[in-house]
Amino acid sequence: MNQIERALKRPFKESEVLWRKGAGGKELCYVTATTVRDRLDSAVGPENWQVSYASFGDRTICTISIRINGEWISKSDGAGDTNIEGKKGGLSDSFKRAGAVWGIGRYLYNPDSYPQGSNGPPAYWATQKGFDEIWAERDAQETEKFRAELGSASLTVPKKLGKVA
């Protein structure tokens, strides 16, 4: 996982995760559109992302484009108007859903991320500390694997470079 992907997927602070009742009274966690914008700004910089909207029937399609290595890459998702905020809610929901396509807050869709719902803490892997520790461990494992592969490979050095120390 590269630095940008990791920064986009990193869990939010517990204080940034909000709760509401969904269909059938089920608890749903979410973040605001502002929180998603802040994540994009911090992960890639405000000059390296842009957003566009299109209507498709009664749905709003949001496309978030991120400039990575000089190339614009776009991902989209959509949502219908909401009962609470109408068209504005559809814009906001489609933006948050497009953010989830990039990995922003995607972990919130996993019911194991908050096993006790709003009454309890997130799972360890769904915290910033847990996420960072898990990835540090994976990075260390990959480094050890790379070193082992290097150690077992025969190293050929062109004569003009001299001896290998």
How would you sum up the global shape?
flat
Strand line-up in the sheet with most strands: 3-4-5
**What percent of the residues sit in helical stretches (DSSP H or I)?**
25-40%
Radius of gyration: 21 Å
Number of domains: 1
Number of DSSP E strands: 5
Number of helices: 4
Describe this protein with a few key phrases.
two-stranded antiparallel sheet; Enolase-like, domain 1; 165 residues; flat; alpha+beta
Structure commentary:
With 165 residues, the protein is α+β, with helices and mostly antiparallel strands. It has one domain (3-151): DNA repair protein Rad52/59/22 (Enolase-like, domain 1, 2-Layer Sandwich). 36% of the residues lie in helices and 22% in strands. The protein has helices at residues 3-9, 33-44, 86-101, 128-152; strands spanning 18-21, 27-30, 49-56, 59-68, 71-80. It is flat and about 60 Å long. 18% of the residues are buried.
Chain-wise SSE layout:
Elements: H1 3-9, E1 18-21, E2 27-30, H2 33-44, E3 49-56, E4 59-68, E5 71-80, H3 86-101, H4 128-152
Entry summary:
The chain has 165 residues and is an alpha+beta fold. The chain is 36% helix and 22% strand. The chain has one domain: Enolase-like, domain 1 (2-Layer Sandwich), CATH 3.30.390.
